[in-house]
Input
Amino acid sequence: MISIAKTCLRGIYGCHWNSDKTKQNRPSCWFSFLSFVSILALSWMYVCFIAFNDHTDVNDLFFKNLKRWVNWYMIVTIISAVLAIYCLLLLVFGLLHLAIREPLNLHWLHKVFLFWGLFTVTTLTTAFCIKWKEEWQTVRISFQATAPFLQLGAVVALTLISWLVFKSYHTAQKAACKAFIMMTFLAVSTAVFLSPLAICSPCITNNLPPKPSLVGHRGAPMLAPENTMMSFRKSVECGVVAFETDVQLSKDMKPFLMHDYDKNFLLRTTDVKKKFPGRDGGTHTNFTLQELQTLNAGEWFLRTDPFKSVSLLSEEEKREAENQTVPSLSELLDMAKQYNVSLIFDLKNENTSTGFHNSDSYYTIDAIKQSGISPDKIWWLPKEYRHNVRNISPGYKQVYNVVSELKEDGGSFLNMKYNMSTREIIELRKENVSVNLWVVNERWLFSLLWCSGASSVTTNACHIFKNMSKPDWHLEPNKYMGIWISADVISLLLMFGLFLWQRRRNCVSRQNGEERCIPLLNL
Output
């Protein structure tokens, strides 16, 4: 059985199915290179996992340039996952080679793949830094949620590889080499074991804040086509406190709902190419509301499945989604009034050069007044003409997206991207400022913001968050301390046992009594 295992390992790692007596040049260097690429691939996969919350930003960017919807982020993630799994499996086979004392003869094809992997990860990281560098802030705050669990994983990994370190220590011939190996290992171990002293996670607490309220981002776009009446109705079923949408003015000055703007603004989410050939490159001023409402705004959702969630819909819901149209703002206001839901929106084409009475704000306010909705249900976000809006409709809740502007105006409602610091959220909440954070789609991020005390979050995934009774990452301090200390103590005991085992094996393997092993208790 052992012979078969050795044959399989030789075949997988070096493509030598028979015992190979030849030795490669610098096999330990290639093993070190394999370890380095594996760590890089694993780190990149962590970045992909964290950045998935905003993956639609990447797909939108490609759509604007290629005019064709493809889930590019998923393609990159799959390639990265295959690379990471390949490197980790190869690393495991290498460690097994060391365990059974087989020579590390890495096949040249594996070397080529490793260089390709290094090039791929380096290229993707460079593109990430150039085109999406703000996402590093998301990666940074993610450690507040994951650090306690990454530390436990590091303890396990350190324990598993300690036998290799101790083997190298006992077989080293020079005292300086022994000292270097042991001092390095002790330094790394100390850092890993004591790192919880530096970990500051808002989810390690006894005082859990209330669960954030949910704001439907363009409705519930994972369950229905975005910015359609079906989408907003689905968000009502999730218990949202507000609808978030995007308002534009048609050619005949009627407010309607559509996120994309400028040229090709209808191309992604409607069948404008089919209904109005040659006009698909037009802007909002090229279409009347009546023309807009003849467009199909749902078929694209079933065809592209942007969130891979169409399978969650029943056949009846799919038929309903397929027949959605472009809604007017008045339709959404009537729904908000019916269900007692608030409304927050962006004005996509606001232009201060036209003057207030010819602005999007003016016509939008007029539509709001005609709907009869309670003014306190309007969360006014656009900063253009804020002073005019406040004078005309003092009942609106004024919402700010810059902390300094909020404090200067004495505001009490902030709407920011989710990656603001935990400390800022806590301080603002102490000042009775409501903090809404956008766009939150992943459970880990929602859990972190819940622990941080966010008032509400704007989300595409209201159907996921509505059933969460507690944050995924929440731990009481005493419980976490118990887990931390227990893991460290168990790891230390296992390492001590492995050290003695490796020492004993090394003593037994020496021949002719050339060197005498000194009992450990006499050292």
The mean pLDDT is 91. The longest helix spans residues 135-171. The longest strand covers residues 242-249.
